[in-house]
Every structure is written in C-alpha cells, then in structure tokens.
Amino acid sequence: MQKNILWSLAIAALTACGGAQPPPPEAPAAADPTASAGAKKPGPEDNAASKAAAVDALAAGEARSGTCDEGHKAALEKLLTEIENGMKAKTGEDGKPLDLQLVGKRVVPLGAGAKQMEMAVSGRGTEVHVLAFGVKEVSLDVLVGNTAATTMRSPFQRSATPAPLAIDLPKIGTVTDVQSDSRQVQIKPGQPIVVKLSGQGCVGLVSFLKP
C-alpha cells in the first residue's frame, strides 16, 4: 500500500514536470523603416515649397539664357489660346457678343531689363486691352505714340478664361498662382501702341481690340 502511494506521488511529480511545453518567445516586432528619429512624411507645405523652388529655377534659367524652356513655352501658348477663345466668347451686360478682336499674341522671354515691342492695331475700334501672364512676377506699361497710356487695368485680367487661370508645366506640375498684369487704353482707329514688359522668365502677351 505504501509503495502504491509512493508510486502515485512519483507519477504525479513526473506529470507536473513533463506537462505542456511553455509557449515560444514572441518574435520582436519588425522595425518601421519610416520611424527614424525626427523623420516625417512630406506634407502639402513641403510640396508647395518644392514647386515654388522649381518655378524660381525655371524663370532664372530663362532670364539668363534669354530663351524659353520648350515645355514652358508650349504651356504658355496653350494658355493664350484658352484666353483667346474665352475673350471671343464674352458678352456684354445686354447678353450680346462683345466681338473682341485679337490684335496679337506671343510668348516673350524676359530678363534683367525691360523689353519693348510695337503692336500694330488695325480696325475701327478705339479700346485696346493688353494682358500679360506668367509663373513669376510680370508688369507692363503701354505707350500710345510717345506718351504713357492710362494706368487703368483691364477688367478682363482675371476673367479672361471661364476656368481659373492655370499653367501646366511638364517638369513641375500645375501652377495655379499665375501672375498677371494688364492695361486698358484708348487709341485713335488704327493707331499702333508700344508695350513695355518687365519680369523674369517667359510670359504670355495677348491683346484685343473692342470695336
């Protein structure tokens, strides 16, 4: 009887010692490669700053070379076509077409000094609207004969196209902060005007005659 008890106790001890195996140690969590100290993902402000720096570099390069980047030139020409179509579709307060006539349009590289060009105006109208657009600062003056014209800006400066002004640059993306300047001047029928442009990089210049 005593042996049976001892045998039972021995079996119980062996069972206790040889029970379920302890669970394996947990594997350490994989390190997050983006969780380095001080690192953060680029946000909208970083992207905007990067785009602004790229625009600055583009304009500075064009100003130094005196020529337009091909992608930039194509984007400005597309914008001028959109402006031409938008202006020709404009109507007055009475709903009748304004019949604005295109005088001329071109893409002009600007540098350290101002650039002057004469624009021949033909037609019976006496009201001319001159508009300039670019991704960097741009300003213009209009001379009628040898006299500086009025400083009145054209009401079409910000409404030349139905959609908000934007320029799509192949290497940079869409630039919505388009800079612009304009003048509305009175001339004698058929009188030429002289446009004086200042700025950096390439700009689109377009003018219309209101009959």
Q: How would you describe what is shown here?
A:
The protein has 211 residues and is α+β, with helices and mostly antiparallel strands. It has helices spanning 2-17, 44-65, 70-88; strands at 101-110, 115-119, 127-134, 138-144, 147-148, 167-169, 173-175, 179-186, 193-199, 201-210. It has one domain. The strands form three sheets. The chain has a four-stranded antiparallel β-sheet. Strands 2-9-4-5 form a four-stranded antiparallel β-sheet, with no helix packed on it. The chain is globular and about 55 Å long.
- Large-scale geometry: globular
What integer is the average pLDDT? 83
Number of strands: 10
Quaternary state reads single chain
**What is the straight-line distance between the termini?**
128 Å
**Percent strand:** 25-35%
Helix content: 25-40%
Q: What number of structural domains do the residues give?
A: 1
In spatial order, strands of the major sheet run 1-10-3-8
**Main sheet record:** 4 strands, antiparallel
Secondary-structure class: alpha+beta
Point out poorly predicted stretches: 1-20
**What's the Cα radius of gyration?**
36 Å
The SSE order reads HHHEEEEEEEEEE
Please work out how many helical segments DSSP would assign: 3
Structural features:
27% helix, alpha+beta
SSE arrangement:
Elements lengths: L1 H16 L26 H22 L4 H19 L12 E10 L4 E5 L7 E8 L3 E7 L2 E2 L18 E3 L3 E3 L3 E8 L6 E7 L1 E10 L1
Antiparallel strand pairs: 1-10, 2-9, 3-8, 3-10, 4-5, 4-9, 6-7
Structure in a nutshell:
This protein has 211 residues and is of the alpha+beta class.
